[in-house]
Design a protein that fits this description.
Elements: H1 5-26, H2 30-44, H3 50-54, H4 58-74, H5 79-82, H6 87-93, H7 95-112, H8 116-126, H9 131-141, H10 145-177, H11 182-208, H12 214-235, H13 240-252, H14 260-283, H15 293-316, H16 324-330, H17 338-353, H18 362-388, E1 397-401, H19 405-416, E2 421-425, H20 428-436, E3 440-443, H21 449-454, E4 460-465, H22 470-484, E5 489-491, E6 513-514, H23 522-530, E7 534-539, H24 546-553, E8 558-563, E9 569-571, E10 585-590
Parallel strand pairs: 1-2, 1-4, 2-3, 4-5, 5-6
Antiparallel strand pairs: 7-10, 8-9, 8-10
């Protein structure tokens, strides 16, 4: 019985969405659920056979999807950021990665019995971690800042570099398999690189000159990527992946070219493609696996987890300022992700078509390693971090959405009490002023996909939505309610309660606790600051309690925050009355009136 292609694509979209939603709810990498669902509906039950369902569309669809995924990942590599990484991260993304590649190749060759060519391709694909798998894991793991920074930078840098290197290894294998000379291999790489650089330069010129309207820029970039991939493959067989990878790296590093909107579009498109692609690829696995392959894959995973990763991290961090406990956790956490799964499947299909012996072993080895690392490390990394005493305690830092004068003054007051404070906003003027004031910042919408990959929330446990955009404040509170918990997200009202009529008021599910009491609004706070009110901090004692503070600074003094003796932050809101006690420090908004006679 023939299957309607439209029904198949619709079901793939539904299944992919459900897997992504489940991953979001459980705070686990989505790739785990996508692969498991694909295995269940494919080889485990036989409900879905991609080759029959998609027919001739399968190979070109997978090829174009992988090309777009590689392009999107390559755009994230910014050479300017490489200068800011520390010595430990530099070692992890250079000789540490090379050492891991060689050891992984040796393990695949000696344990799984694959040829050295397939083994080196396996090593190139699996020596990298990626932001899409490491970011959700870090939110659950919550290691100290140095470990979190090292793992994030390793994923950000190695993801595109690893993709480029894996493509070069594949090109060398494919060229050799077809009997091509070294000159033909060089020509293939040269044509791919030339087309990728040329298309990136042309697109960058058009974007810089604003010759493409903003609403068509993402569409035009999509056409340019697919055009470069197709043209390169037509001129030199198998050179398209080189073209799109170098095109992404080049476009991401062009100065004075605004690509944030393009990045957002590509991230959403990649989420869609990954959700469908991984279900299809996992469903193509043949079950049972070739004799001994399952055991070989498990043994390779064990060696990679408990031997190769620790050794490579030990070598990469020699001479760094990391302690042995931090090295131990770094040597344990290394989940594999999107690049390894998507590219390995495409390479296996192409090498299989070329008659490469052992190509069918590549995908099972990669998938077993992905599932093994994600499952094991998600379940055990947090307890290990606690045992090693490198896990952050209950995070008490503050993420502030907004960067105007109100947000900056509040952030400064909290920072003076040694709280970790991070301001996030897409207003460049406000972010620039915050940076000039010495505050940590993130330029961008904190609810965006870009923030999900690049916003470091290590040590952050609360959200204060202080922007003047009411809807975005509520959206941020909903977004971070899952991250921090309902009781740890707050918003500063934009409308006064009497102004928020039934038609304008948000539903209960969209509301968060109102900061600083029910009648305080952002406009009123800003007006008070302009009128000379100031944020005052003071320590309370038995002799100088909160009543004495109010007597000294005026009865209209408004308590904003309290800091308990153990350093815990208390946030004043409309839901819970805060009564400062002796031993606390208080942060309050006080009037500019002369101090009372009690002073």
């Amino acid at each position: 019985m023939s299957i309607d292609l439209g029904v198949v694509l619709t079901l793939l979209l539904v299944v992919g969405f459900l897997a992504q939603w489940l991953a979001w709810r459980l705070r686990l990498p989505a790739i785990l659920f996508l692969l498991l669902i694909g295995i269940v509906v494919g080889p485990a039950t036989g409900l879905f056979d991609p080759d029959k369902a998609l027919g001739d569309f399968l190979f070109p669809t997978v090829s174009l999807a992988v090309a777009l995924i590689l392009f999107e990942g390559s755009m994230t590599l910014r050479f300017s950021e490489l200068r800011g990484i520390g010595g430990a991260v530099h070692g992890m993304v250079t000789y540490g990665a090379v050492l891991a590649l060689l050891m992984l190749a040796a393990a695949a060759h000696w344990i799984a019995g694959v040829s050295w060519q397939i083994a080196f391709l396996f090593g190139a694909l699996t020596c990298v971690t990626g932001p899409t798998v490491i970011t959700p894991m870090l939110r659950t793991l919550r290691p100290n800042a140095r470990i979190a920074s090292a793992l994030r930078w390793e994923g950000i840098v190695l993801d595109p570099l690893g993709a480029l290197f894996a493509v070069l290894v594949f090109e060398a294998i494919a060229s050799h398999q077809q009997g091509h000379s070294l000159a033909v291999f060089g020509a293939t790489i040269g044509i791919g690189a030339g087309i990728g650089l040329a298309v990136a330069a042309a697109l960058g010129f058009l974007l810089y000159r604003q010759m493409i309207p903003e609403y068509l820029q993402a569409y035009g970039t999509l056409i340019a990527v697919l055009g470069a991939f197709t043209l390169s493959n037509k001129l030199a067989h198998e050179s398209g992946l080189v073209a799109v990878t170098l095109m992404g790296i080049t476009l991401g590093n062009l100065k004075h070219v605004h690509i944030d909107d393009i990045m957002d579009f590509k991230e959403h498109l990649s989420t869609l493609l990954v959700s469908m692609l991984f279900v299809v690829l996992a469903a193509r696995l043949h079950w049972p696996l070739p004799p001994g392959m399952l055991l070989a894959g498990i043994l390779v995973f064990v060696v990679a987890q408990f031997v190769i990763r620790p050794v490579s991290i030990l070598a990469a961090t020699l001479g760094s300022n990391l302690g042995w406990r931090e090295r131990a956790l770094l040597g344990y956490v290394s989940p594999r992700g999107v690049v390894a799964a998507s590219v390995s499947s495409l390479f296996a299909m192409r090498l299989g078509a070329l008659g490469m012996p052992g190509a069918d072993a590549l995908v099972p080895l990669v998938f077993i390693l992905i599932i093994g690392t994600v499952v094991l490390q998600s379940a055990t990394a947090r307890p290990l971090a606690r045992a090693l005493k490198v896990a952050d305690p209950d995070p008490d830092g503050v993420l502030i959405f907004g960067s105007d004068e109100v947000a900056r003054r509040i952030a400064t007051a909290l920072a003076e009490h040694k709280f970790q404070v991070l301001l996030a906003d897409d207003d460049w003027d406000g972010i620039s002023a915050a940076r000039m004031a010495g505050l940590a910042t993130f330029f961008g919408n904190p609810t965006s996909q870009h923030a999900a990959l690049h916003l470091d929330l290590t040590g952050i446990g609360r959200l204060l939505a202080l922007s003047t955009r009411r809807e975005l404040n509520s959206l941020a509170c909903m977004h971070y309610r899952q991250e921090f918990g309902r009781e740890r997200v707050y918003r500063l009202r934009v409308l006064a309660p009497e102004d928020a009529t039934d038609r304008a008021a948000f539903a209960g599910s969209l509301r968060a606790k109102a900061l600083f009491g029910g009648d305080m609004t952002h406009m009123r706070f800003a007006e008070l600051l302009q009128a000379g009110w100031r944020i005052k901090s003071s320590a309370l004692t038995d002799a100088f309690g909160w009543p004495a503070f109010v007597a000294q600074h005026g009865a209209d003094s408004m308590l904003l925050f309290g800091v308990e003796p153990n350093g815990r932050l208390r946030v004043v809101s409309n839901r819970r009355k805060t009564e400062p006690k002796s031993g606390w420090s208080v942060i309050a908004l006080v009037s500019p009136a002369p101090e009372s006679a009690a002073a």
